[in-house]
Amino acid sequence: GKFYLFPFIRPGMLGEVGQSTLIALSALVGFSWAVPFHSAIVDMTGEAYAGLGCFLLGISAAVLLLPAWFLYIVPRALRYKQLREDLLEATRTGDREKLALSVDEGFWDEGFGRC
After folding, report:
1. For residue 53, how many other CB atoms are within 10 A of its CB?
2. pTM higher than the cut 0.90
3. Minimal CA–CA distance to 80: which of 52, 113, 33, 43?
4. In b/e form, how buried is each residue of 20-36, taking b as 16+ CB within 10 angstroms?
5. DSSP code at position 5
6. pLDDT tens digit string along 89-102?
7. Of 69, 107, 72, 71, which Cα lies nearest the Cα of 86?
8. Closest by alpha carbon to 77, among 107, 114, 34?
9. Cα–Cα distance between 3 and 26 in angstroms, integer?
């Protein structure tokens, strides 16, 4: 199958052009923040230690963000993927019991969709 960067946007919802545009805009936003961050690091560390400052900022961001990603985002994404596969299978086979069970146990109870 195809890989979509934003799985919450259904493939038929935006189409290929919309998906590509969304990815391109996301990349542009990321690149637009590169220069201000580099300038801030140079201001804090000085020109001689800018490389070390970038390295330390990257390591500290990874140390802070990766555990949260592994503990919260990955399990929810896997559960969502499994629930989606179960719902598609129940829809294909017409299994009303499994479909009702999937909806009743739905992931919305775990905080999906809440602010």
Report:
1. 17
2. no
3. 113
4. eeeeeeeeeeeeeeeee
5. S
6. 888 887 777 766 65
7. 107
8. 107
9. 16
